[in-house]
Amino acid sequence: MGRFSYKMPEDFLLKVSRLGEKTDEIIPKVLEAGGEVVEAKVRSNLQSVVGRGTKKESRSTGELESALGVSPARQDRDGNFNVKIGFSEPRSSTDKSSSGKSNAMIAAVLEYGKQGQPPKPFLKPAKTSSRKGCIEAMKAKLEIEVKKI
């Protein structure tokens, strides 16, 4: 599925370095604030493409949209903190039209298309358009957390 990666501005990284022992407590909160901005844009884009421009009536159940979410911030083996925006699995067994298919596969078909179904990108445009808002939300959250110290 899609992967987002943003480089942090230098002034932002300097503020983070001053936090000392509180860094591991504050960085996840900051990343989750940014993740919420990106998730909202992905959700908006997803709503705008699902069921649009189809030859037949849409069979959308809304399950893909409800499965979208932001993971808690976690530290990887390299010591970097990450949040992920993606789809929870598995799909419910009540959805007969897409039984046996994962949310990630359905999202990939929407994003990239398949034979007879044109692509309807919603992830890549969300990454591009939410970049500034994501960084601003993280800066604002960092300021709030720094003031608490």
Regions with pLDDT < 50 over 5+ consecutive residues?
none
Strands of the biggest beta sheet: in what spatial order?
Answer: 1-4
From the alpha carbons, calculate the radius of gyration and give it in angstroms: 18 Å
Judging from the principal axes of the Cα atoms, what is the shape?
elongated
Number of domains: 1
Total strand count, please? 4
The secondary structure category is mainly alpha
Largest sheet entry: 2 strands, antiparallel
* End-to-end Cα distance: 38 Å
Beta-strand content bin: 5-15%
> Helix count, per DSSP?
5
| SSE sequence, one letter per element | HHHEEEEHH
Describe the overall structure.
The chain is mainly α and 149 residues long. The chain has one domain (10-52, 60-148). Helices cover 51% and strands 7% of the residues. The chain has helices at 10-17, 23-49, 63-67, 103-112, 123-148; strands spanning 68-70, 74-75, 81-82, 85-87. The strands form two sheets. A two-stranded antiparallel ribbon has the order 1-4. A two-stranded antiparallel sheet has the order 2-3. A hairpin with a 5-residue loop joins β2 (74-75) and β3. The termini are far apart.
Topology:
Blueprint: H1 10-17, H2 23-49, H3 63-67, E1 68-70, E2 74-75, E3 81-82, E4 85-87, H4 103-112, H5 123-148
Antiparallel strand pairs: 1-4, 2-3
Helix pairs in contact: 2-5
Notable traits:
single chain; 149 residues; two-stranded antiparallel ribbon; 5 helices; elongated
Summarize the structure.
The chain has helices spanning 10-17, 23-49, 63-67, 103-112, 123-148; strands at residues 68-70, 74-75, 81-82, 85-87.
